[in-house]
Design goal:
About 25% of the residues lie in helices and about 15% in strands. The chain is α+β, with helices and mostly antiparallel strands. The two termini are about 25 Å apart.
């Protein structure tokens, strides 16, 4: 894709301007700033006569936070911090409340732990907090990633000090941590806008099998490169499909890293990932969805390192993996992705909502498949063989039911099911339908992938509506777990990943993300909003306030200067935009430029090279 770059900070203090156009930039012309309106933050569309410029026929009528009738539970800080909009609605309120409760975990309730104990959590925690600037939380995460144990073949250990994951008396291997480790590292260097973290060195060895921890003395980059080698070779990813075979436990000297392999995908076989009671294995739809994402992350890491050849290699395999995922796992019969093809070639489909929505969020599938999946989740399309149908799929409100087919409903002659667990977790008794979070219950974090999929394929209104539904539930019980000691809800306790859910306001509605090509700000407006923003995101060590208006106006305030590539997509399409840079201290205009968006509506604004600029800087983008 051809990018038109607007070089806006060629000189730190002089704010020299270069022309908008293709590389290389041209010599800067004279400043063409025009006089600004007195009320700089006012949306020019707010005072328009509706007779002259009518609103859309259907406008989402949002709930105000006041409609929640929270009484003494009301926390005024949650009205507009860190996320806000011009309606002060329940969606922003609940996103802010959940951010404190499950994200930063600093609201005084300690509802969830701050970390899990396997590599799988690294991606979830990095995606949750890297934008926030919470230095303590972030540094603890980075230390864990640097020192986490890894076998010589590249496998990231299943538990902090063990190669296997222990469920009751059952030892299993969890492969998902190896994929997510790569994603976490890419998250970190993307938000830091630096590859320095890749050079940090593992200083520890772990557990009773410490001699199998190959990673001591290795850099983070060496570890992610070895992890990807494991996925491509030992898990056969070079073919475009991950296959978990017995070869996956072999190290180069042919010693087995574990004797616990039984990931055939058959009834009663062992689990292969975080969903530790389910028999994912062989050709697993879950691991393959993660594979596609990890390939893109590895390509991003290599682009940040400057190795374009390696990046293109991984991107090529990702393209192959995407095609093979749809060919292998899509079911025309049920209109969703199946879960596993076992070693006998048997296809298993239990209607796993979390796998389907994460696949969509990761970029697999297409609009037609997404409609089929979301219609099924919304109850607008019923699969006749499902246990949960229609409204029952979203019956828990906070998140979709984990599976729509009860595991105990399909058994073999020996009464085995697609369920793995010790005798204390029995799918026919205490873990039966709607008694267990992996069998008719839910884990809250999965709502993040649901929201992200809705944002991509149903639009912002669908996300706002879902936040409002969560807000009503919050007003009822403030998200305390009233499960009476059962295990139906994965809401509080050992679920720090639940803090992903409120970040959908940042990633889905505000369209903020970080990658090898800079910081992206591409808001998706609900029909109800005219203005949205976030008080602070930290990118490249600098804090920025980001605000957008439906009129196309965008404001970016660098609290300690600017130093980044900004990929901005104004909400209102136009052929040209005016970009004005001002002092954040006195409002003095430092310069301006008229810029042309690329074919996808993005402005690519280069503010790099301003590390010495420490005072506040304000960037305003308007339709020219």
């Amino acid at each position: 894709m051809k990018k038109f770059i607007c070089i806006l900070l060629a000189l730190l203090l002089l704010f020299g301007f270069a022309a908008c156009g293709t590389n290389p930039p041209q010599k800067a012309p004279e400043d063409d700033t025009q006089q600004e309106t007195p009320d700089e933050d006012k949306d020019p569309d707010e005072d328009k006569d509706p007779e002259q410029d009518p609103e859309p026929e259907e406008v989402l009528q949002v709930k105000s936070y006041e409609d929640l009738n929270l009484g003494p539970m009301l926390n005024e800080e949650y009205i507009d911090t860190p996320f806000y909009n011009d309606k002060n609605d329940a969606a922003a309120y609940i996103a802010n409340a959940m951010w404190r409760m499950f994200g930063l975990v600093n609201d005084g309730q300690d509802l969830v732990y701050k970390f899990g104990n396997e590599a799988t959590w690294f991606e979830w925690i990095s995606e949750k907090v890297m934008w926030s600037g919470d230095a303590g939380y972030i540094n603890e995460l980075k230390t864990k990633i640097v020192n986490y144990a890894q076998c010589e073949n590249g496998f990231l250990w299943s538990w902090g000090d063990r190669i296997e994951w222990l469920v009751g008396d059952q030892y299993t291997l969890h492969y998902d941590g190896t994929f997510r480790y790569i994603n976490a590292v890419y998250d970190i260097i993307s938000w830091e806008n630096s590859t320095v973290f890749l050079d940090e060195v593992d200083q520890s060895q772990s557990g009773s099998d410490a001699y199998k921890d190959w990673s001591k003395g290795k850099t983070v980059y060496q570890k992610v490169e070895r992890a990807m080698r494991y996925l491509l070779e030992d898990l056969h990813g070079e073919t475009g499909l991950i296959q978990i075979t017995e070869e996956s436990v072999m190290m180069s000297n042919r010693e087995k890293m574990s004797e616990q392999w039984d990931n055939t995908g058959k009834f009663g076989s062992k689990a292969s990932n975080y969903w530790d009671n389910l028999c994912f294995g062989n050709y697993s739809g879950y691991e393959n969805a993660l594979f596609y994402d990890s390939l893109l992350s590895m390509a991003g890491i290599e682009r940040m390192r400057g190795d374009v050849e390696k990046a293109e290699y991984y991107e090529g395999i990702a393209e192959l993996a995407k095609r093979k995922y749809d060919e292998t796992f899509w079911s025309e019969e049920t209109g969703r992705y199946i879960n596993t093809i076992d070693t006998d070639g048997v296809k298993h489909d239990y209607g796993l909502t979390f796998q389907n929505t994460e696949a969509l969020k990761n970029g697999l599938g297409d609009a037609e498949k997404a409609k089929s999946i979301l219609d099924w989740i919304d109850g607008e399309r019923v699969v006749s063989t499902d246990t949960a149908r229609g409204d029952e799929v979203m019956g828990w409100v906070l998140a979709p039911v984990s599976n729509t087919v009860a595991f105990e409903s399909i058994v073999d002659n020996n009464r085995n099911t697609w369920w793995h667990g010790p005798s204390t977790i029995d799918v026919f008794t205490n873990a039966g339908w709607r008694k267990h979070l992996e069998n008719g219950g839910y884990i809250f974090y999965t709502a993040f992938y649901e929201l992200m999929a809705r944002a991509k394929y149903q639009g912002a209104d669908a996300v706002v509506k879902r936040f409002e539904e969560m807000a009503v539930n919050y007003a009822t019980d403030r998200y305390m777990n009233h499960d009476d000691g059962g295990w139906t809800y994965g809401l509080i306790g050992e679920f720090p990943e639940n803090g992903l859910v409120p970040t959908a306001y940042l990633y889905a509605l505000l369209g903020v993300s970080a990658g090898y090509d800079g910081l992206t700000f591409a808001p998706d407006f609900s029909t109800a909003y005219n203005r949205m923003g976030v008080e602070s995101v930290v990118y490249g060590g600098k804090a920025y306030k980001l605000e957008a208006q439906k009129s196309g106006r965008m404001v970016i305030v660098g609290q300690s200067g600017l130093d980044m590539i900004l990929n901005a997509k104004p909400a209102k399409a136009a052929e040209e935009y005016k970009v004005v840079v001002k002092s954040g201290l006195n409002g003095q205009t430092l310069g301006s430029k008229t810029c042309t968006p690329d074919e996808n509506g993005f402005l690519h604004l280069d503010f790099t090279g301003s590390n010495a600029q420490t005072s506040s800087v304000r960037v305003e983008i308007t339709v020219a």
